[in-house]
Design goal:
The protein is an alpha/beta fold and 490 residues long. The protein contains 18 helices and 13 strands.
Length: 490
Protein backbone atom coordinates (compact mmCIF):
# COMPACT_ATOMS: atom_id res chain seq x y z
CA UNK A 1 0.00 0.00 0.00
CA UNK A 2 1.32 3.43 -0.92
CA UNK A 3 2.27 5.37 2.21
CA UNK A 4 1.41 8.76 0.72
CA UNK A 5 -0.74 10.98 2.89
CA UNK A 6 -4.01 11.59 1.06
CA UNK A 7 -6.69 14.25 1.35
CA UNK A 8 -10.13 14.85 -0.12
CA UNK A 9 -13.42 16.61 0.43
CA UNK A 10 -15.63 14.15 2.35
CA UNK A 11 -18.87 16.11 2.13
CA UNK A 12 -20.97 16.69 -0.98
CA UNK A 13 -19.77 19.40 -3.34
CA UNK A 14 -21.69 22.67 -3.28
CA UNK A 15 -22.54 25.32 -0.72
CA UNK A 16 -23.45 24.09 2.76
CA UNK A 17 -23.25 25.13 6.38
CA UNK A 18 -20.29 22.84 7.05
CA UNK A 19 -17.78 21.07 4.83
CA UNK A 20 -15.38 18.32 5.91
CA UNK A 21 -11.97 17.44 4.47
CA UNK A 22 -10.37 14.12 5.35
CA UNK A 23 -6.62 13.53 5.60
CA UNK A 24 -5.07 10.10 6.16
CA UNK A 25 -1.52 8.75 6.23
CA UNK A 26 1.63 8.54 8.30
CA UNK A 27 2.24 12.29 7.96
CA UNK A 28 -1.40 13.41 8.37
CA UNK A 29 -0.88 15.16 11.73
CA UNK A 30 2.36 16.84 10.61
CA UNK A 31 0.91 18.10 7.32
CA UNK A 32 -2.22 19.51 8.92
CA UNK A 33 -0.15 21.08 11.69
CA UNK A 34 1.81 23.06 9.08
CA UNK A 35 -1.34 24.99 8.19
CA UNK A 36 -3.23 24.78 11.50
CA UNK A 37 -3.00 27.49 14.14
CA UNK A 38 -4.18 26.11 17.45
CA UNK A 39 -2.98 23.30 19.68
CA UNK A 40 -0.11 20.98 18.79
CA UNK A 41 -2.08 18.09 17.31
CA UNK A 42 0.56 15.39 17.87
CA UNK A 43 0.39 16.04 21.64
CA UNK A 44 -3.40 15.69 21.83
CA UNK A 45 -5.25 12.43 22.62
CA UNK A 46 -6.87 10.49 19.81
CA UNK A 47 -10.55 11.06 19.07
CA UNK A 48 -10.55 14.68 20.20
CA UNK A 49 -11.67 17.89 18.48
CA UNK A 50 -9.73 21.14 18.49
CA UNK A 51 -10.56 24.72 17.56
CA UNK A 52 -8.23 26.84 15.46
CA UNK A 53 -7.52 28.41 12.09
CA UNK A 54 -6.30 27.16 8.74
CA UNK A 55 -3.59 29.51 7.47
CA UNK A 56 -1.57 29.75 4.29
CA UNK A 57 2.00 30.46 5.32
CA UNK A 58 3.42 30.41 1.80
CA UNK A 59 1.40 33.43 0.71
CA UNK A 60 2.30 35.64 3.66
CA UNK A 61 5.22 38.04 3.44
CA UNK A 62 7.40 40.00 5.88
CA UNK A 63 6.98 37.52 8.75
CA UNK A 64 9.48 37.03 11.51
CA UNK A 65 9.74 34.93 14.61
CA UNK A 66 8.21 37.68 16.77
CA UNK A 67 5.10 37.95 14.60
CA UNK A 68 4.70 34.15 14.64
CA UNK A 69 4.82 34.16 18.41
CA UNK A 70 2.17 36.89 18.53
CA UNK A 71 -0.29 34.60 16.73
CA UNK A 72 -2.35 32.75 19.30
CA UNK A 73 -5.94 32.49 20.36
CA UNK A 74 -5.65 35.54 22.63
CA UNK A 75 -4.19 37.92 20.04
CA UNK A 76 -6.60 37.58 17.13
CA UNK A 77 -7.24 41.28 16.68
CA UNK A 78 -7.49 43.10 13.31
CA UNK A 79 -3.98 44.47 13.94
CA UNK A 80 -2.58 41.00 14.61
CA UNK A 81 -4.11 39.69 11.37
CA UNK A 82 -1.93 41.89 9.21
CA UNK A 83 1.21 40.51 10.87
CA UNK A 84 0.34 36.89 10.33
CA UNK A 85 0.07 34.32 7.52
CA UNK A 86 -3.20 34.58 5.61
CA UNK A 87 -6.11 33.13 7.56
CA UNK A 88 -8.26 30.95 5.31
CA UNK A 89 -10.98 29.88 7.73
CA UNK A 90 -11.95 29.21 11.32
CA UNK A 91 -12.15 25.41 11.72
CA UNK A 92 -12.62 22.48 14.03
CA UNK A 93 -10.05 19.70 13.62
CA UNK A 94 -10.75 16.10 14.70
CA UNK A 95 -7.82 13.74 15.13
CA UNK A 96 -7.84 9.94 15.01
CA UNK A 97 -4.50 8.34 15.78
CA UNK A 98 -3.42 4.98 14.37
CA UNK A 99 -4.57 2.29 14.60
CA UNK A 100 -7.92 3.52 15.92
CA UNK A 101 -9.16 5.18 12.76
CA UNK A 102 -11.19 4.17 9.72
CA UNK A 103 -8.04 3.56 7.65
CA UNK A 104 -5.99 2.40 10.71
CA UNK A 105 -3.61 5.27 9.82
CA UNK A 106 -3.26 8.65 11.49
CA UNK A 107 -6.28 10.59 10.26
CA UNK A 108 -7.53 14.15 10.53
CA UNK A 109 -10.90 15.66 9.63
CA UNK A 110 -11.12 19.42 9.09
CA UNK A 111 -14.60 20.93 9.49
CA UNK A 112 -14.78 24.32 7.76
CA UNK A 113 -17.48 26.78 6.73
CA UNK A 114 -19.11 25.15 3.74
CA UNK A 115 -17.89 27.38 0.93
CA UNK A 116 -16.68 25.43 -2.12
CA UNK A 117 -13.93 28.05 -2.54
CA UNK A 118 -12.71 27.58 1.04
CA UNK A 119 -12.72 23.81 0.64
CA UNK A 120 -10.70 24.08 -2.58
CA UNK A 121 -8.26 26.49 -0.92
CA UNK A 122 -7.67 24.20 2.08
CA UNK A 123 -7.04 21.23 -0.22
CA UNK A 124 -4.50 23.28 -2.20
CA UNK A 125 -2.66 24.20 1.03
CA UNK A 126 -2.63 20.56 2.22
CA UNK A 127 -1.18 19.47 -1.12
CA UNK A 128 1.48 22.19 -0.97
CA UNK A 129 2.42 20.87 2.46
CA UNK A 130 2.94 17.29 1.29
CA UNK A 131 -0.41 15.55 0.87
CA UNK A 132 -1.93 14.43 -2.42
CA UNK A 133 -5.52 14.18 -3.61
CA UNK A 134 -7.12 10.83 -2.85
CA UNK A 135 -8.42 8.63 -5.62
CA UNK A 136 -12.01 7.38 -5.67
CA UNK A 137 -12.56 5.03 -2.75
CA UNK A 138 -8.94 5.26 -1.57
CA UNK A 139 -9.79 5.79 2.10
CA UNK A 140 -11.96 2.65 2.10
CA UNK A 141 -9.38 0.75 0.07
CA UNK A 142 -6.76 1.56 2.71
CA UNK A 143 -9.14 0.31 5.40
CA UNK A 144 -9.44 -2.95 3.45
CA UNK A 145 -5.73 -3.30 2.69
CA UNK A 146 -4.86 -2.60 6.33
CA UNK A 147 -7.25 -5.28 7.59
CA UNK A 148 -9.80 -2.90 9.11
CA UNK A 149 -12.65 -4.35 7.01
CA UNK A 150 -13.00 -7.11 4.42
CA UNK A 151 -13.97 -6.58 0.81
CA UNK A 152 -17.68 -7.29 1.23
CA UNK A 153 -17.83 -4.75 4.06
CA UNK A 154 -16.02 -2.21 1.87
CA UNK A 155 -18.64 -2.69 -0.83
CA UNK A 156 -21.43 -2.32 1.72
CA UNK A 157 -20.11 1.16 2.56
CA UNK A 158 -20.75 2.24 -1.03
CA UNK A 159 -24.20 0.64 -0.82
CA UNK A 160 -24.93 2.46 2.43
CA UNK A 161 -23.97 5.81 0.89
CA UNK A 162 -26.16 5.08 -2.13
CA UNK A 163 -29.15 3.81 -0.13
CA UNK A 164 -32.34 5.68 -0.92
CA UNK A 165 -34.82 3.91 1.32
CA UNK A 166 -35.08 2.13 4.66
CA UNK A 167 -34.87 -1.38 3.21
CA UNK A 168 -31.64 -0.75 1.29
CA UNK A 169 -30.13 1.01 4.33
CA UNK A 170 -30.87 -1.97 6.58
CA UNK A 171 -29.40 -4.48 4.13
CA UNK A 172 -26.25 -2.39 3.62
CA UNK A 173 -25.83 -1.91 7.38
CA UNK A 174 -26.23 -5.64 7.96
CA UNK A 175 -23.42 -6.35 5.51
CA UNK A 176 -21.25 -3.58 6.95
CA UNK A 177 -21.58 -5.29 10.34
CA UNK A 178 -20.24 -8.46 8.71
CA UNK A 179 -23.41 -10.43 7.96
CA UNK A 180 -22.26 -11.99 4.70
CA UNK A 181 -18.65 -12.16 5.95
CA UNK A 182 -19.65 -14.32 8.92
CA UNK A 183 -21.66 -16.67 6.73
CA UNK A 184 -18.79 -17.07 4.26
CA UNK A 185 -16.21 -17.50 7.02
CA UNK A 186 -18.20 -20.39 8.54
CA UNK A 187 -18.58 -22.11 5.18
CA UNK A 188 -14.89 -21.70 4.34
CA UNK A 189 -13.78 -23.04 7.72
CA UNK A 190 -15.89 -26.18 7.30
CA UNK A 191 -14.67 -26.71 3.75
CA UNK A 192 -11.07 -26.04 4.69
CA UNK A 193 -11.05 -28.84 7.27
CA UNK A 194 -12.08 -31.45 4.71
CA UNK A 195 -9.84 -29.97 2.03
CA UNK A 196 -6.87 -30.38 4.35
CA UNK A 197 -7.72 -34.05 4.87
CA UNK A 198 -8.09 -34.61 1.13
CA UNK A 199 -4.73 -32.92 0.55
CA UNK A 200 -3.24 -35.22 3.20
CA UNK A 201 -4.57 -38.23 1.32
CA UNK A 202 -2.64 -37.07 -1.74
CA UNK A 203 0.57 -37.17 0.30
CA UNK A 204 -0.14 -40.81 1.16
CA UNK A 205 -1.63 -41.78 -2.20
CA UNK A 206 0.60 -44.84 -2.54
CA UNK A 207 -0.77 -46.30 0.70
CA UNK A 208 -4.41 -45.97 -0.47
CA UNK A 209 -5.78 -44.53 2.78
CA UNK A 210 -8.74 -42.19 3.42
CA UNK A 211 -8.38 -39.55 6.10
CA UNK A 212 -11.62 -37.79 5.15
CA UNK A 213 -14.77 -39.68 6.12
CA UNK A 214 -16.74 -39.71 2.85
CA UNK A 215 -20.10 -40.11 4.63
CA UNK A 216 -19.47 -37.12 6.86
CA UNK A 217 -18.17 -35.23 3.85
CA UNK A 218 -21.40 -35.90 1.92
CA UNK A 219 -23.43 -34.56 4.83
CA UNK A 220 -21.30 -31.42 5.03
CA UNK A 221 -21.40 -30.82 1.28
CA UNK A 222 -25.18 -31.18 1.30
CA UNK A 223 -25.47 -28.58 4.06
CA UNK A 224 -23.08 -26.21 2.26
CA UNK A 225 -24.95 -26.75 -1.01
CA UNK A 226 -28.19 -25.76 0.69
CA UNK A 227 -26.65 -22.69 2.32
CA UNK A 228 -25.02 -21.49 -0.92
CA UNK A 229 -28.28 -21.97 -2.81
CA UNK A 230 -30.17 -20.06 -0.16
CA UNK A 231 -27.69 -17.17 -0.27
CA UNK A 232 -27.76 -17.13 -4.07
CA UNK A 233 -31.56 -17.10 -4.19
CA UNK A 234 -31.65 -14.08 -1.86
CA UNK A 235 -30.03 -12.02 -4.64
CA UNK A 236 -33.34 -11.54 -6.43
CA UNK A 237 -34.76 -9.85 -3.34
CA UNK A 238 -31.52 -8.04 -2.55
CA UNK A 239 -31.22 -6.67 -6.06
CA UNK A 240 -34.79 -5.36 -5.87
CA UNK A 241 -34.03 -3.63 -2.57
CA UNK A 242 -30.73 -2.16 -3.75
CA UNK A 243 -31.51 -1.14 -7.33
CA UNK A 244 -35.28 -0.88 -7.31
CA UNK A 245 -37.79 -2.80 -9.38
CA UNK A 246 -38.45 -1.91 -12.99
CA UNK A 247 -42.20 -1.94 -13.74
CA UNK A 248 -43.35 -1.60 -17.34
CA UNK A 249 -46.88 -0.29 -17.95
CA UNK A 250 -48.03 -1.88 -21.20
CA UNK A 251 -51.22 -1.99 -23.22
CA UNK A 252 -52.96 -0.96 -26.41
CA UNK A 253 -53.15 2.73 -27.32
CA UNK A 254 -55.65 4.58 -25.12
CA UNK A 255 -55.78 1.74 -22.58
CA UNK A 256 -55.16 4.19 -19.73
CA UNK A 257 -51.41 3.69 -19.18
CA UNK A 258 -50.60 7.36 -18.67
CA UNK A 259 -53.65 7.78 -16.45
CA UNK A 260 -52.44 4.87 -14.33
CA UNK A 261 -48.96 6.38 -14.00
CA UNK A 262 -50.50 9.65 -12.84
CA UNK A 263 -52.72 7.80 -10.37
CA UNK A 264 -49.76 5.91 -8.91
CA UNK A 265 -47.68 9.06 -8.56
CA UNK A 266 -50.64 11.21 -7.48
CA UNK A 267 -49.58 13.93 -9.89
CA UNK A 268 -50.09 14.85 -13.54
CA UNK A 269 -46.79 13.47 -14.80
CA UNK A 270 -47.92 12.09 -18.16
CA UNK A 271 -50.12 13.77 -20.78
CA UNK A 272 -53.56 12.19 -20.91
CA UNK A 273 -55.70 12.44 -24.03
CA UNK A 274 -58.56 10.64 -25.72
CA UNK A 275 -56.43 10.55 -28.86
CA UNK A 276 -54.82 7.12 -29.22
CA UNK A 277 -51.03 7.11 -29.44
CA UNK A 278 -50.39 10.23 -27.35
CA UNK A 279 -47.35 8.65 -25.68
CA UNK A 280 -44.58 8.26 -28.25
CA UNK A 281 -41.59 7.82 -25.92
CA UNK A 282 -41.12 6.17 -22.53
CA UNK A 283 -41.74 8.18 -19.35
CA UNK A 284 -40.01 6.93 -16.20
CA UNK A 285 -40.69 7.87 -12.59
CA UNK A 286 -39.68 6.35 -9.24
CA UNK A 287 -42.17 5.67 -6.46
CA UNK A 288 -41.23 4.23 -3.07
CA UNK A 289 -43.73 1.73 -1.71
CA UNK A 290 -43.11 0.32 1.78
CA UNK A 291 -39.37 0.93 1.53
CA UNK A 292 -38.82 -0.38 -2.00
CA UNK A 293 -38.16 1.80 -5.04
CA UNK A 294 -40.31 0.97 -8.06
CA UNK A 295 -39.32 2.50 -11.40
CA UNK A 296 -42.56 2.85 -13.34
CA UNK A 297 -42.22 3.14 -17.11
CA UNK A 298 -45.13 4.47 -19.15
CA UNK A 299 -44.73 3.19 -22.69
CA UNK A 300 -46.24 3.76 -26.10
CA UNK A 301 -49.32 1.72 -26.89
CA UNK A 302 -48.46 -1.57 -28.59
CA UNK A 303 -50.02 -1.86 -32.03
CA UNK A 304 -49.04 -2.12 -35.68
CA UNK A 305 -48.59 1.39 -37.05
CA UNK A 306 -47.34 3.10 -40.20
CA UNK A 307 -46.29 6.19 -38.21
CA UNK A 308 -42.50 6.07 -38.06
CA UNK A 309 -42.22 7.93 -34.74
CA UNK A 310 -44.92 5.84 -33.07
CA UNK A 311 -43.26 2.66 -34.40
CA UNK A 312 -40.04 3.64 -32.60
CA UNK A 313 -42.08 4.12 -29.41
CA UNK A 314 -43.62 0.66 -29.81
CA UNK A 315 -40.16 -0.86 -30.23
CA UNK A 316 -38.97 0.90 -27.07
CA UNK A 317 -42.00 -0.45 -25.22
CA UNK A 318 -41.03 -4.00 -26.21
CA UNK A 319 -37.45 -3.38 -25.04
CA UNK A 320 -38.78 -2.26 -21.66
CA UNK A 321 -40.80 -5.45 -21.39
CA UNK A 322 -37.60 -7.44 -21.93
CA UNK A 323 -35.80 -5.69 -19.06
CA UNK A 324 -38.70 -5.30 -16.62
CA UNK A 325 -39.22 -7.45 -13.54
CA UNK A 326 -42.92 -6.61 -13.25
CA UNK A 327 -45.33 -5.96 -16.10
CA UNK A 328 -48.64 -4.16 -15.68
CA UNK A 329 -50.76 -5.00 -18.71
CA UNK A 330 -53.82 -2.75 -19.06
CA UNK A 331 -56.88 -3.78 -20.99
CA UNK A 332 -60.62 -3.27 -20.78
CA UNK A 333 -63.61 -5.30 -21.80
CA UNK A 334 -64.92 -2.58 -24.11
CA UNK A 335 -61.93 -2.18 -26.45
CA UNK A 336 -60.17 -5.53 -26.00
CA UNK A 337 -60.88 -9.17 -26.63
CA UNK A 338 -59.92 -12.06 -24.40
CA UNK A 339 -57.86 -13.45 -27.28
CA UNK A 340 -55.76 -10.27 -27.42
CA UNK A 341 -54.95 -10.46 -23.72
CA UNK A 342 -54.12 -14.16 -23.88
CA UNK A 343 -51.94 -13.68 -26.96
CA UNK A 344 -50.01 -10.85 -25.31
CA UNK A 345 -49.24 -12.85 -22.15
CA UNK A 346 -48.09 -15.86 -24.17
CA UNK A 347 -45.86 -13.69 -26.35
CA UNK A 348 -44.04 -11.85 -23.59
CA UNK A 349 -44.23 -14.17 -20.61
CA UNK A 350 -40.96 -15.43 -19.17
CA UNK A 351 -40.08 -17.20 -15.95
CA UNK A 352 -38.56 -14.18 -14.20
CA UNK A 353 -41.33 -11.74 -15.21
CA UNK A 354 -44.22 -11.09 -12.82
CA UNK A 355 -47.29 -10.11 -14.86
CA UNK A 356 -50.27 -8.32 -13.34
CA UNK A 357 -53.29 -8.07 -15.64
CA UNK A 358 -55.24 -4.89 -14.98
CA UNK A 359 -58.82 -4.83 -16.14
CA UNK A 360 -59.09 -1.06 -16.40
CA UNK A 361 -62.09 1.23 -16.67
CA UNK A 362 -64.28 -0.74 -14.29
CA UNK A 363 -66.10 2.55 -13.75
CA UNK A 364 -67.55 1.94 -17.24
CA UNK A 365 -67.93 -1.84 -17.32
CA UNK A 366 -68.79 -2.47 -13.64
CA UNK A 367 -65.73 -4.75 -13.25
CA UNK A 368 -67.59 -8.05 -13.20
CA UNK A 369 -64.89 -10.48 -12.04
CA UNK A 370 -67.04 -13.43 -13.09
CA UNK A 371 -67.69 -12.16 -16.61
CA UNK A 372 -67.28 -14.52 -19.53
CA UNK A 373 -64.47 -12.27 -20.79
CA UNK A 374 -62.34 -12.74 -17.65
CA UNK A 375 -63.25 -16.38 -17.19
CA UNK A 376 -61.93 -17.13 -20.65
CA UNK A 377 -58.63 -15.41 -19.85
CA UNK A 378 -58.29 -17.37 -16.60
CA UNK A 379 -59.07 -20.70 -18.20
CA UNK A 380 -56.48 -20.16 -20.92
CA UNK A 381 -53.64 -18.87 -18.75
CA UNK A 382 -53.93 -20.94 -15.59
CA UNK A 383 -51.89 -22.86 -14.55
CA UNK A 384 -49.24 -22.49 -17.26
CA UNK A 385 -48.72 -18.75 -16.73
CA UNK A 386 -48.34 -16.97 -13.41
CA UNK A 387 -50.53 -13.92 -13.35
CA UNK A 388 -52.92 -11.86 -11.26
CA UNK A 389 -56.05 -10.15 -12.57
CA UNK A 390 -57.12 -6.98 -10.79
CA UNK A 391 -60.00 -4.70 -11.69
CA UNK A 392 -59.13 -1.00 -11.45
CA UNK A 393 -60.20 2.42 -12.58
CA UNK A 394 -57.10 4.53 -13.17
CA UNK A 395 -59.35 7.52 -13.77
CA UNK A 396 -61.19 7.23 -10.45
CA UNK A 397 -58.25 5.77 -8.47
CA UNK A 398 -60.27 2.64 -7.76
CA UNK A 399 -58.11 -0.18 -6.31
CA UNK A 400 -54.87 1.74 -6.94
CA UNK A 401 -53.83 1.20 -3.32
CA UNK A 402 -54.55 -2.52 -3.71
CA UNK A 403 -52.26 -2.53 -6.75
CA UNK A 404 -49.49 -0.86 -4.74
CA UNK A 405 -49.87 -3.48 -2.02
CA UNK A 406 -49.66 -6.25 -4.62
CA UNK A 407 -46.40 -4.78 -5.90
CA UNK A 408 -44.96 -4.62 -2.39
CA UNK A 409 -46.14 -8.15 -1.57
CA UNK A 410 -44.42 -9.47 -4.68
CA UNK A 411 -41.06 -8.04 -3.62
CA UNK A 412 -41.47 -9.45 -0.10
CA UNK A 413 -42.26 -12.87 -1.60
CA UNK A 414 -38.76 -12.92 -3.09
CA UNK A 415 -37.19 -12.96 0.36
CA UNK A 416 -36.23 -16.39 1.64
CA UNK A 417 -37.46 -17.13 5.14
CA UNK A 418 -34.50 -19.31 6.06
CA UNK A 419 -31.78 -16.71 5.69
CA UNK A 420 -31.45 -13.29 7.24
CA UNK A 421 -28.40 -12.46 5.12
CA UNK A 422 -29.34 -10.89 1.80
CA UNK A 423 -27.02 -10.77 -1.24
CA UNK A 424 -27.22 -7.45 -3.08
CA UNK A 425 -23.96 -7.49 -5.03
CA UNK A 426 -23.65 -8.99 -8.53
CA UNK A 427 -20.02 -9.94 -7.87
CA UNK A 428 -21.01 -11.87 -4.75
CA UNK A 429 -23.80 -13.62 -6.65
CA UNK A 430 -21.43 -14.78 -9.39
CA UNK A 431 -18.86 -15.98 -6.86
CA UNK A 432 -21.53 -17.95 -4.98
CA UNK A 433 -22.72 -19.52 -8.24
CA UNK A 434 -19.19 -20.61 -9.19
CA UNK A 435 -18.54 -21.98 -5.70
CA UNK A 436 -21.86 -23.84 -5.81
CA UNK A 437 -20.94 -25.34 -9.19
CA UNK A 438 -17.67 -26.61 -7.72
CA UNK A 439 -19.47 -28.12 -4.71
CA UNK A 440 -21.88 -29.90 -7.04
CA UNK A 441 -18.94 -31.36 -8.97
CA UNK A 442 -17.43 -32.61 -5.70
CA UNK A 443 -20.74 -34.25 -4.74
CA UNK A 444 -20.92 -35.98 -8.12
CA UNK A 445 -17.28 -37.06 -7.86
CA UNK A 446 -17.84 -38.67 -4.45
CA UNK A 447 -20.95 -40.44 -5.73
CA UNK A 448 -18.95 -41.90 -8.64
CA UNK A 449 -15.81 -42.66 -6.55
CA UNK A 450 -13.65 -40.35 -8.64
CA UNK A 451 -10.00 -40.02 -7.62
CA UNK A 452 -8.82 -37.78 -4.81
CA UNK A 453 -6.92 -35.35 -7.06
CA UNK A 454 -10.17 -34.17 -8.63
CA UNK A 455 -11.82 -33.74 -5.22
CA UNK A 456 -8.91 -31.64 -3.98
CA UNK A 457 -8.97 -29.43 -7.08
CA UNK A 458 -12.71 -28.72 -6.90
CA UNK A 459 -12.64 -28.11 -3.14
CA UNK A 460 -9.84 -25.59 -3.62
CA UNK A 461 -11.90 -23.98 -6.40
CA UNK A 462 -14.92 -23.64 -4.11
CA UNK A 463 -12.74 -22.13 -1.38
CA UNK A 464 -11.17 -19.67 -3.80
CA UNK A 465 -14.51 -18.34 -5.05
CA UNK A 466 -15.82 -17.97 -1.51
CA UNK A 467 -12.62 -16.14 -0.65
CA UNK A 468 -13.24 -13.69 -3.48
CA UNK A 469 -16.30 -12.38 -1.66
CA UNK A 470 -14.40 -11.37 1.46
CA UNK A 471 -11.26 -10.42 -0.47
CA UNK A 472 -9.01 -13.25 0.74
CA UNK A 473 -8.44 -14.09 -2.93
CA UNK A 474 -8.49 -11.15 -5.29
CA UNK A 475 -6.37 -9.17 -7.73
CA UNK A 476 -5.57 -5.55 -8.51
CA UNK A 477 -7.99 -5.44 -11.46
CA UNK A 478 -10.93 -6.55 -9.32
CA UNK A 479 -10.00 -4.08 -6.58
CA UNK A 480 -9.66 -1.29 -9.13
CA UNK A 481 -13.12 -1.97 -10.52
CA UNK A 482 -14.70 -2.09 -7.08
CA UNK A 483 -13.21 1.07 -5.62
CA UNK A 484 -13.49 3.04 -8.86
CA UNK A 485 -17.23 3.16 -8.20
CA UNK A 486 -16.76 4.90 -4.85
CA UNK A 487 -17.02 8.64 -4.46
CA UNK A 488 -13.93 10.75 -3.85
CA UNK A 489 -13.36 11.19 -0.12
CA UNK A 490 -14.67 7.74 0.86
Amino acid sequence: MNQDTICALATASGVGAIGVIRVSGNDALEIVQKCFKGKTLAQQPSHTIHYGYIVDRQEAGGRNQESEMMFNEKSLSPIAYCLQPEIIDEVMVSIFKAPKSFTTEDSVEIAFHGSPYIGKKILEILIKNGARMAKAGEFTMRAFMNGRIDLSQAESIADLIASENEASRKVAMQQLKGGISQEIAQLREQLLNFTSLIELELDFSEEDVEFADRTAMKTLLSAIHHKLSDLKESFQYGNAIKNGVEVAIIGKPNAGKSTLLNALLKEERAIVSNIAGTTRDTIEEVLHIEGTAFRFIDTAGIRDTADEIEAIGVQKAKEKIASAKILLYLFDEIDSTAEEVISFVKEFWRKDLHIILLNNKIDLNAGDLESEFLQKIKSELVPDFSHIILGISAKDNTNIEILKQELSDYVQSLKTDENNVVITNQRHYEALQKSLDAIQRVEEAIAHHIQTEFLAYELRTALEYLGEISGEFTNDEVLGNIFANFCIGK
